[in-house]
Amino acid sequence: MRILFISANQEKSPDLVYPIGLAYIISASIKDGHECNVFDANFHKDFKEPLKNILQNLHPDVIGISIRNVDNAAYPSAISYLSHYQNLTDFCREILSESIIILGGSAFSLFPKEFMEKLKPDFGIVGEGENAFLHLLKSLEENEIPVKANPGIYYPEKFSYPEKFSFESDTILDARDLLNGAIYSENGGSINIQTKRGCCFQCSYCTYPLLEGSEIRKREPAKVVDEIEYCIKKWGGNYFFFVDNVFNSEQEHAIEICKEIIRRQIKIQWTAYISPFCTSETLFSLFKESGCSSIDLGVDSASKTGLDVLKKPFSMQEIMDCAQWCHKYKIKFNCSLIFGYPGETIESIEESIQNIFLCRPSSVVAFIGIRLHKGVPLTKSLEKNGYISHEKIGIDPVFYIEESVREYLIERLSTLSKKYENWFMPGLNTQRITNAYVKRIRSKGFKGPLWELFSIKD
């Protein structure tokens, strides 16, 4: 079949994000013999004219639209992306009414019923899509339109999550050129690499176990490094971002990847999401030797109450250990924090702030409140206790913020962001990184996370 894949994301703050999930779907479709083309809305502020041209020239049988984010998850300045997705989907239907429209992506997977009702596609793909998408295409080719739920396929009111998460396609090299990895490397500051899927943790608010499953499925370290070498030869990029939800969730796997980079003597820099759980000084030493420039340390809270409520699998001492090793091996690190969880008090807020100061991170990104999603433990608990009804949680962002500390939090974090230039508060309009600034910095060759620019030197 002739397929036009559309990456719908247009959010560029703080950086362009390579659509790696869509890349896996495209790669699987190419391997299955389909003719694949891509329209990337990231590079078209006004998408209508260029999209019209490609639709009319290609006349695709299928239009696959990948929607990455529901909203920016930043209280109190939350922005929903629904209207953009509606405009894009409606426009495709207007130009080519006979093409079959299939939605997918992480945003759709979180709220499939709501997006089906709002955007009115023909089908939707829930969760990992490689197998489900190809199964749907095969049914369409054979004129056997599914009349019952198939794992991963939403039609029209019936769906089920995939019974077995796939990740069987071990490479996205076939899709790298179609999605113009060179531009993302130049303007996004890094090349995205995925080494595994699945999350074994049970953090109370997190959607990763829903999207990827709780079973961790790993790529062979050698194949991961093969892909790194391919990208270097193809585009000359030397800064990589391991986009796993937690790079070190299986320490031995992370170690083997680092050792393979070192063994091949590949000179790169890289960054990743790291949990204080399951770490060691040996791991951080290998991080540095293999080219680690910085890490995003997902602590979420630095108070005992917060760690307990958010169901984090590590202690304050483990956070401190990671901070110590980062300083020892000169690895910059950002601490991500969530304030306003159930049971938050002024005392726990101050405890968390003071403990983070003791860690001396390069930067801090702090969120006010928790964006609620269906099916996660925290939301289920709030529904059971009568805080909110299941129907109220959807595409329009709803946040939980402990009411007794709401005003204090906003004032306290605003003060911190004004006093310390390396403290960032999404949603409080204290953003120092504008699109124009990003463009200027990237044009001068700066690679890596932009928060590194604001880090406080030791």
What does this structure look like?
The chain is α/β, with parallel strands linked by helices. The chain has two domains: 2-154, Cobalamin-binding domain (Rossmann fold); 189-454, Aldolase class I (TIM Barrel, Alpha-Beta Barrel). It contains 18 helices and 17 strands. Helix 10 crosses helix 11 (251-263) and helix 11 (251-263) runs parallel beside helix 12. The radius of gyration is 22 Å and the shape is globular.
What attributes does this structure have?
seven-stranded parallel beta sheet, 458 residues, Rossmann fold, 2 domains, six-stranded mixed beta sheet, TIM Barrel, globular, 39% helix, alpha/beta
Task: Give the SSE map.
Layout: E1 2-7, H1 20-31, E2 35-40, H2 48-58, E3 62-66, H3 82-95, E4 100-104, H4 106-110, H5 112-119, E5 123-125, H6 130-141, E6 153-154, H7 173-176, H8 181-188, E7 191-193, E8 196-197, H9 208-212, E9 217-218, H10 221-235, E10 239-242, H11 251-263, E11 269-274, H12 281-289, E12 294-300, H13 304-309, H14 316-328, E13 332-339, H15 346-359, E14 363-368, E15 370-371, H16 377-384, E16 399-400, H17 406-419, E17 423-424, H18 435-443
Parallel strand pairs: 1-2, 1-3, 3-4, 4-5, 7-10, 10-11, 11-12, 12-13, 13-14, 14-17
Antiparallel strand pairs: 5-6, 8-9, 15-16
